[in-house]
Each structure stands twice: as structure tokens, then as C-alpha cells.
Amino acid sequence: MNRRNFLRTTALGAAIAVTPISFSAFGKDTATKATTPGGRMRLTFEPYELKLKHVFNLARNKRTSTPGVQVRIDLDGITGYGEASMPPYLGENVESVSSFLSRVDLGQFADPFRVKDIHEYLESIAPNNRAAKASVDIALHDLLGKIMGQPWHKIWGLNPEKAPNTSYTISWNDDAEELGREIAECKPFKIIKVKMGVGHDKELVEAFRKVYPDKAICVDANQGWNDKEKALEMCNWLAERGCVFVEQPMPKEKLDETAWVRERSPLPIIADEFLQRLPDVRRAAGAYDGINIKLMKSTGLHEAHQMAELARALGMKVMLGCMTETSCAVTAAAQLSPMVDWADLDGNLLISNDIFDGIKVVDGKVTIPIDRPGIGVVPV
């Protein structure tokens, strides 16, 4: 179906019903048969907890799971899939996301291609709620890409061969055997992200280097180094051990201290927790060398694409990251990956209960499903 025929057959002012759904609906692809008659678009959602393969030890918390909500939009037999993932620091949870989605009513939009108008409407419903808004944005992009019959990297004019390698994440584990298993899982990847700020930073790097003396690493301190002198000392120490960059070394509130570290660090300093949405990109330019864009913070693909373009215009490096997510959100982010310098798109690899097939990592490289329209996933 081309866009002109689609718009002709879509009723002016088509209503969108928002209801919780049975999770079993996500276990099959409904894109080939009408699920809602008469051109009605239907937004549905279902909580889904993501189970981590290993305990995730971060500077400010540890966890074995991440709450999530799976979303879909059905229209004329075409299904768009979306997802919200809510690690604790985002300030969202299943209840807040479900409450937000229950208030969404897109029936006022005769043309689903009015992405900017739809985002302005989502902003008017409530402030923040970034992951909830991202789930709608991802599902909408998936739906629109399928209507056009094209993947989003192609719609944006991006070359999938330029997608970078993805890092794979490890964190400190007090159980030596479990830590050994995590390190062993790093073998297929060319760059490893080391989570720091938990008191065993140097021990973790040294344990890793015993197994992989030459493999590149990058570091995410998750705001864990409160003292600028300590942060600079760690940057110098890491530079001698093959580190590529350091992500969010200091608390996001300490902008001046971060700028001080950046001026003296031999490694690029990348903004993560400091950076949420488009206005933060310019603010980051004075204290960071680059930014880490995540769909759950940027409210989805629409704004993430704008953030990447602005960062490039400001001469900044760009990294594309993710939370612990299914292949739905990770593959959506991967559509942007040819635009960036670095990718950290391993969230789906860190969970044991993925329900989508999408992005692949081949010889360490992000590989986008080029033959699938939309965001590039199918439910499994």
C-alpha cells in the first residue's frame, strides 16, 4: 500500500483506542491481517519485565531486572511495535508509563505522517515521561516505515555499511566465577564497555586485561567519581590501558568540574546522564567532547535524529546507546547507527527473555536488518 492510497482509505479523524492487551498478542505477527476494522488505529500496551543474564552493578544501584512496557499500534492490518524501558534513574515505572499511555488519544490526527504534530501533542499531555513518549514514537516510526515499505535508515538516506562496532557491557561482580563468565562473553566483540564507579574499578580492568590484553575498552563511570582530581587520575590511568573514551565521569550537576577534567584528560569525555533531550546538546558542548543518545531519554527516534545532527554541527562526537531493552527498541536505535562514531547497542544481548528478532552483531559490528521495513523487527 502506498502512502496516497493509505491516506485515501484512512477515515478523517480516525479514532485511536488505548487499552491494555493480552501479552500473547506480541507472540505473533499481525501485520498481514486486519486487527481493527474500518481504518481505526489502535494503540495497545502490556507490561513486560526484562530479566538480566547477570547482576548489573552500577555506581548508584544494582539490579537483576528492568521494568518495561511493550506497545503496538495497529492500523489497516499493519502493526507498529514500540517499547518503554525504565531503569530506576529515569524516574519512570510501569504505573507512570501505563497512566501516560492511557491518556493518549491520536484520533485527532487524520494523517499519521504528521510526526512533529504528534510529538507536540504528546508533550502537551504531561512533562517528562520520556520513555512513555519513546514507546509511542518507536511504534509510530515502525508503522510509517511499513506503510512506505522502507526501513528508516534508508528513509534517512543512511548507508548501513557505515554502522560502527558495538560495545558489550560488563560490570564488577563479587562472585569471581560469575565475573569470569561475563568476561568470557566479551570474546566476539571488538570493544568492551566497562561499568565503573563501584569501588573496584581498577580491579575490573586488570581482570579483563589478563584475558584480553589488546581488546579496546571504553568506560562508563555513571557519575561515580565525585572528585575531579580522582576523575582525572582515572582518565590518565585508563589511557595507559587502551581506553577509547570515558562516559559521564562525574555527577551531572558538576558541570564546571567536568569541564575542568575535559580540558586535562587524554581521553574524550562523553555526556550520558547529563544529556536527556535536544536542548541539552548545546549545554553539553562546553563541558563534554561528545554525547550519548538513548531513545528512552530523547523520547524516541524523531528527536534522537535531531540531536545527532545538532551535535555534528557543533563538532561533537556522537555515541548511540540503549538501556536494557528487547530487540524492538535496540533495533530502532540501530537505524540511526550509520550517523554515529560509537555504538553501545547491546541491551538485547544482556537479557534472557527477548521477544523480538532484529539487530544482529556480526564480527562485533552493528548489522541492521536491511530487508525489513520500519524499525526492522518481527516478534518471535
Describe the structure.
The protein is 33% helix and 22% strand. It is globular. Helix 2 packs across helix 4 (130-148) and helix 8 runs parallel beside helix 9. It has helices spanning 3-9, 94-103, 115-125, 130-148, 152-155, 176-184, 201-211, 228-239, 255-264, 278-284, 295-298, 301-313, 327-334, and strands spanning 16-20, 41-47, 50-57, 62-66, 68-75, 78-85, 167-170, 191-195, 216-220, 243-247, 269-271, 290-293, 317-320, 342-343, 356-357, 360-362, 365-367, 378-379. Strands 7-8-9-10-11-12-13-14 form an 8-stranded parallel beta sheet. The longest helix has 19 residues, at 130-148. By secondary structure, the chain is α/β, with parallel strands linked by helices. The model is unreliable at 1-25 and 27-38 (pLDDT under 50).
